[in-house]
């Protein structure tokens, strides 16, 4: 059986760009795209200040703008708490692997390590 050769055909820049965009798209959060939409929404909402419009039209556009920005703010706060929760879990994991391990405590102060089992027996 002949061995299968790796594909060495030239790849166009367009294919590489699309592949990179797909990889980047997978790891980007929704808040990234919402931040990109902010200038677009502001530009689309700016037309109400250029020409006179009815009060109902004005109120509808302002309501939609506030709704969009409230969604962004809620999403940002949720992302903030999510990142904080991940950070605390990672800090706890790192602490338990390093300073919180029994081996580290025993090696750092042998007198304390010897006292711990005797204290446990006296408490029982």
Description:
The protein is mainly α and 124 residues long. It has one domain (16-123). The protein is built from 5 helices and no strands. Helix 4 (102-108) crosses helix 5.
Key attributes of the depicted protein:
124 residues
Helix-strand makeup class: mainly alpha
Shape: flat
Percent of residues in β-strands: under 5%
Overall number of structural domains: 1
Fraction in helix: over 70%
The total count of helices amounts to 5
Please provide the count of β strands. Answer: 0
Mean pLDDT across all residues, rounded?
A: 80
- Distance from N terminus to C terminus (CA atoms, Å) equals 72 Å
Helix/strand order, N-terminal first: HHHHH
Radius of gyration over C-alpha positions, nearest whole angstrom: 29 Å
Reported for the largest beta sheet, the result is:
none
Model regions low in confidence, pLDDT < 50 over at least 5 residues = none
Question: How is this structure best summarized?
Answer:
The chain has one domain. It contains five helices and no strands.
List strands and helices in order, with pairings.
Elements: H1 13-27, H2 30-45, H3 55-97, H4 102-108, H5 110-123
